[in-house]
Write a structure and sequence with these properties.
Distance between the termini: 36 Å
Largest sheet: 2 strands, antiparallel
Low-confidence stretches: none
Bound molecules: zinc ion
Helix content: 40-55%
Number of strands: 4
Strand order of the largest sheet: 1-2
Radius of gyration: 22 Å
Shape: elongated
Length: 93
Amino acid sequence: MAELEVICDCDHRFNVPESLRGGMSNCPSCGKAAAVPGGPEKLFWLVLAFWILLAMVVLVPSAVYLFYNGYTLAGWGVVVFGCLLVIAVVLSM
Ligand SMILES: [Zn+2]
């Protein structure tokens, strides 16, 4: 199995399993959690999944609301408010 080299803040180098890519691992020398390099792809999918989830949470109820209440100004107001809410949540992270 492939291993990744981690360099801890204390300058100790150690290897961790490939499966920990992009995660954290405790340094065997000082015991602190050290970041394992790599993993941009995993982060990308995490972000994408997050956005899809947010879109589902906001857009699906908005679409249902518009469908049952007609495409009124108030309906679009709910959609715009939902989008602003998502943007506010994302920016606050
Ligand atoms: Zn260390």
